[in-house]
Amino acid sequence: MQNLFSPLTIRSVQFKNRIAVSPMCQYSSEDGFANDWHLVHLGSRAVGGAGLVITEATAVSPEGRISPDDLGIWKDEHLVNLKRIAAFIEAHGAVPGMQLAHAGRKASHNRPWDGGKFIAPDAERGWQTVAPSPVPFIPAEPVPRELTAEEIEKVIGDFVAASRRAAEAGFKVIELHAAHGYLIHEFLSPLSNRRTDHYGGSFENRIRFLLEILERVQTVWPADYPLLVRISATDWSEGGWTADDAVALSAILKDKGVDLIDCSTGGNVAGARIPLGPGYQVQFAEKVKKETGILTGAVGLITTPEQANEIIVSGQADLVLLAREFLRDPYFPFHAAQKLGAEVEWPAQYVRAK
Ligand SMILES: Cc1cc2nc3c(=O)[nH]c(=O)nc-3n(C[C@H](O)[C@H](O)[C@H](O)COP(=O)(O)O)c2cc1C
User: Fold this and answer.
1) Which one of 76, 213, 216, 258 is most buried, by most CB atoms within 10 A?
2) How much distance in Å is there from the Cα of 39 to the middle of ligand 1?
3) Residue 1: predicted pLDDT
4) With a 6 A CB cut-off, is 25 part of the ligand 1 pocket?
5) How much is the CA Rg of the chain, to the nearest whole Å?
């Protein structure tokens, strides 16, 4: 039986345990560059014993950023600092992963501690947002511009270039961000995708953008490294993307060689009623795993060692991703090991505290 501290091997990559640092925007970059903040933030959680450390949503193009302060990987100059971070994470026994993202209609916002509001295209630091259809996230925000077929092709190319760079920087895992109402999710959901061309309408058409990104990314991403996709398994809204859609999509992604589905929810519909509570999204990781056989990751209000362990032991998911608990406690894996009676290696520098 597997538990939280059982290793997991995907392709040529071994994770020492089932605990991942979930992607978390830091809004601390200038012009997309990683800096000492990212090194220390991600590095501490590798030192703290996580099996997988995933960067925040890393923008594949400047206009794909949620805020002007987001991390990016749209030019080769970004790689110097990213290489240092990936190498540090790996040197401390964790697998370095990168989430690749385009924010679509949710781009061009101020960072949360500056109010988090939309920045108008003509304002300083703002830009014109794009989306599958000219439907704003909330009515108060300007309408995004509908992507043309040529622009879709360009975005796909940006994901490809970003994936090539991620490998060059030393990341061993990429996660395509197809959740939380960002560009790929906007194509998936009928609530944000009103297109009448072959990217809109039927389920097959709405998933096409993701599949085209995936197929093209696979031509540059090393075949022996894992490729993950984060989805929102439901829009929690009438007429939106559903858990059955998530299962159908995951089965197709599995056939196409995706290794693990990271099952989040929501983010595409303002004001959706989400039944928040401990492990409230685990059911979706379980459903996708049981109905398709693909590996899944569970995320969302997983905060205690016992809870995290139970998700793995009971076979609901293969990996747990923690976000806010890792902000409170970078050493969560060490504390969890103590609680659960597992023997794990501490950094030599810290052994006297074990
Ligand atoms: C500060 C912060 C930044 C986040 N940024 C991202 C992100 O870049 N990409 C993403 O997929 N999710 C992001 N999330 C969502 C988390 O990855 C996670 O799915 C969510 O917080 C639920 O997990 P938790 O209850 O363990 O925090 C962010 C969450 C927080 C708290």
Assistant:
1) 213
2) 18
3) 87
4) yes
5) 19
Q: Which atom of ligand 1 is nearest to the CA of 303?
A: 26
Cα torsion through 287, 289, 294, 296, rounded to 10: 100
What would the mean pLDDT of 15-25 be, rounded to a whole number? 98
Query: What predicted TM-score, i.e. pTM, was given to this entire model?
Result: 0.98
- Ligand 1 site, residue 26, Cβ cutoff 6 A: no
Q: Measured in angstroms, how far is the CA atom of residue 329 from the centroid of ligand 1?
A: 15
Phi and psi at residue 25, to the nearest 5°: -55, 135
For the Cβ of 229 lying below 6 angstroms from any atom of ligand 1, the answer is no
Query: 324 in ligand 1 pocket by Cβ < 6 Å?
Result: yes
Per-residue pLDDT tens over the stretch 211-260: 999 999 999 999 999 999 999 999 999 999 999 999 999 999 999 999 99
Owner of token pair 């902000």: 327
User: 162-180, pLDDT tens digit by residue?
Assistant: 999 999 999 999 999 999 9
Distance 322 CA to ligand 1 centre (A): 8
- Residue whose Cα lies nearest atom 11 of ligand 1: it is 23
Task: Compute the distance between CA of residue 218 and CA of residue 202 in angstroms, rounded to an integer.
Answer: 25
Domain range summary for the chain, segments of one domain joined by +? 8-353
pLDDT of residue 283: 98
Q: How confident is the model at residue 102 (pLDDT cuts 50, 70, 90)?
A: very high
Give burial (CB, 10 Å; 0-12/13-18/19+) of 196: exposed
Q: Mean of the per-residue pLDDT values for the chain? A: 98
CATH class of the domain whose range is 8-353: alpha beta
HSE-up (13 A, CA, CB side) for residue 155: 30
Is 274's C-beta closer than 6 angstroms to any atom of ligand 1? no
